[in-house]
Amino acid sequence: MSTAVSPLAPTNVPEMPAIAGVKLATAAAGIRYKGRTDVLLAVMDKGTSVAGVFTRSKCPSAPVEWCRAKLKGGQARALVVNSGNANAFTGKTGKQATTLTASIAAKAAGCKPDDVFLASTGVIGEPLDATKFDGVLGTLAQSAAPDGWMAAAKAIMTTDTFPKLATATVKLGKAKVSINGMAKGAGMIAPDMATMLAFVFTDAPIAAGALQSLLKAGVGDSFNAVTIDGDTSTSDTLLAFATGAAAASGAPKITRASDPRLKAFTKAFNAVLANLSELVARDGEGARHLVEIIVEGATSKTSARKIAMSVANSPLVKTAIAGEDANWGRVVMAVGKAGEPADRDKLSISFNGIRVAWRGARDPAYDEAEVSAAMKNPEIQIRIALGLGRGRDRVLTCDLTKEYVAINGDYRS
Amino acid sequence: MSTAVSPLAPTNVPEMPAIAGVKLATAAAGIRYKGRTDVLLAVMDKGTSVAGVFTRSKCPSAPVEWCRAKLKGGQARALVVNSGNANAFTGKTGKQATTLTASIAAKAAGCKPDDVFLASTGVIGEPLDATKFDGVLGTLAQSAAPDGWMAAAKAIMTTDTFPKLATATVKLGKAKVSINGMAKGAGMIAPDMATMLAFVFTDAPIAAGALQSLLKAGVGDSFNAVTIDGDTSTSDTLLAFATGAAAASGAPKITRASDPRLKAFTKAFNAVLANLSELVARDGEGARHLVEIIVEGATSKTSARKIAMSVANSPLVKTAIAGEDANWGRVVMAVGKAGEPADRDKLSISFNGIRVAWRGARDPAYDEAEVSAAMKNPEIQIRIALGLGRGRDRVLTCDLTKEYVAINGDYRS
Q: Buried-most residue among B4, B32, B214, B258 (CB within 10 A)?
C-alpha cells in the first residue's frame, strides 16, 4: 500500500447520511494485510433489489461469476467484500471459496446464500481461505450499523491512497431519498493487479430490472469513461442496491427506468457514479495530473469515445503530461492511431483552453510560455475538435509517471 | 538523443556487402541536430522497382502521403531520408516541402521527381525547411558510393542508441543476390514521437508488384509483430528497392511473388525484416529486457496475435518484467482483456520455459526462487498456451521502465 496520499485527492470528504435498510460493519480478518481492516459486511433489509455490471474480461474472478449468476434473482440481503486476495485464477477452489463465504454470510445475515453478493480484490492466483470469514461475519452482522461509511470505504482499499465516497440526496415523488456510494481502485495490489470495485446503495424503491437499466446506462459516461492504464481487471465489479425503505415515507415504487418520476433520481444517481469514477482517476497509481479528454466534432459519440480512449491510453501522451509538456504532436498521433474518421487538416487541439493546433498545423498564435505555465496545473483538459460532425465524448485519465513504474515494477527488485 | 547504448544492443555489427545499383551518401544539413549527419541520399540505377508499406495512422505525415502516391509508378531512382524533423502535421507547407525536396533530389540524381521517395523523422508540427537540401543533395549525388551502410544507418537515427543493419545473401536462380536493410526506431524524437523507418535494398530483379506482395506478406510477422508502447507514429515507413542489377549475372526476372524460384529469396528477405524489427525492439526506449510473447492453442492466428499484442502492450505486464517479476496474474489479466476466446481453466503460462500457471491456477510445481532467477535474464519469453485450437503467433516487445518515462516526460520539466 502507498503511504503518501495522491496530490489529486479531494480536500473535502462528504458527510454520508444513513441509508434506511442498510447496515455496515468492518473487521480485520487477516486475509493478507496486518493491522488494518480487510472485510466489509453490508446487510440489507428484506425487499432490497440489486443490479450489477462487471469486468468484460474473458478470465473473470470467482466472485464475479458468483454475482453474475445470483443477479438473476434480483434480490440482495448481504454484501461481503474482502481486500488482500482477489480469488481470481484460483480454479475450483476459488468457486468453493465463494460458496463457503456466501453460506457463512447467509447464516450471519439470516438469508439464503443466493441473496449474498461477493467481491474480492487483491493478489490473484492465491487460494482464498474462506474459513477466515467464519465467526467474523457473524460478529459483523451483530454489530452492523447505519453509519460507518468511511470505515467501509477504508476496508476495501488496496493500493488506494484515500477512501472514495460520494453521496446525493434527491426527491423521488414527494419523498426524500439518498444515494450513497463507495469505490476502490484503480490501484495495484502488490504483487498483482488493478481492480475497481464500487457499491452504491439507495433507499429508493426501485425494482431490480429498472435498477439494472439505470446502472447500465449510468456506467457508460462514468466508470467506463475512466482509464488509468488501459488494463482491465479480472474482478471489476459495480453493484447497486435499492432497499426500498423510502416507500414508507411515500416514495413511489419504480418498475421502469424510463419512468418520468425517476428523472431527478437518475441525474443524482449518475452524479454519484461520476463522482466515484473521478475519484478513481484522481487516485491513479503515481498520478500527478488529472487529465480530462474531450473529443468533439467526431462522426458519432462512439467514434469520439474511441478517439478519446486512444489519447487517454497513449503512453506517449501520458508521459508528456507527466513532463508538463503540451505535446500536441502526440495527441495527433493518438488521434491518428484510433482508426476512426479524422481529417488532419480540420483537426484542432487545446490544452486547458489554449489552442495549440488549428486545422492541421501549429496554431500561429501559440505562445509556448503561456502553455507551459498552464501545464503546471494539476488538472489538465485536452480538447480535440475534429470538425467532422456532432459526436462528442469525454474521458478521464491521469498521467504516467515514474512512480507508476515504481509501484508496479519495483517491489520485487 | 540518448548517450547510453541499450543493454540489449547486438554485440556484432554485420558486414554489409555492396548492392549493385545502389549508392549512398550522408551529410549534416542542419535540420535540427548539431554535429551529426541528418540526411541520407540513396541513388538507384534505372530500372529499380519499389514497394512500400506505411503507418495506418489517419493523420499521416506529408512524406508518407508523397510515397503512397508515387508508389503507383513502381519505379524509384532516389531515396531522401532526413532526421530531426518529421514534416508531420505541417499542413500545406508540409506538402510543399515534399515537392521541393523531391525536385531538388530529382535534379541531383538526374531523374523525375516522381521517382524520388521521401521519409522524415523527428519533431512534428514544425515546418521542414526543404531549401536546406538545396546544394546538399547535389553534392551527395556526386559523392554517393556503394559502401557507407553504417553511415547511412547512423544518419537516420533519432533517439536510437545504436544503428540498425541487417543483410542476407542468397541464390536466385544460379546468381547470388544480396539484401541489405537498415532501420531506425522505435525511439522518441524529443520533443515528439516514435517513428519507425526501414529501407531494404536488393540487386534481385523483382518487379514492383511482386516486391509489394513480398513486402506486405513479410511485414506481418516482423515489423507488425513488434510493439514498444502501442503508439503508432504518423510517419512509419518501410520501403523496399530492387535494382535488378543481378540480372546481368543471370538472376531470373521475377514478376510474381508466388514464383517458386523466389522461395529462398523470400526466406532471406523475411529474415532481414525480422532481424531489423528485432533490433527495433532491442532499442525500445528505456528497455532493459527484450520480451518475446508466444501464444499457442488459440482459435486462430489472428486471435493469437490479438492476445499477444494485448499482453505486449499491457503496462502492468511490462512494468512487472522491468521489476523482474514473473507476475503471471497480469498475463492472465491481459489475456482476459483481449476479448478473444480464452478459457480460464485451460490456460497455462510459462516464463523462460518455467511453467507458473497451469489449467487456470498456479502450477503446483512452481518454484518462486527458480522463476525469480530466470527473470534476471535480459531476454524473457512468455509462453501462453490457451488449449483451444491450433492458432499460434509471436510478438516482440520490451519492458516499461522508469527510463521510458524519463525519456518521454522529463525533457521539459
A: B214
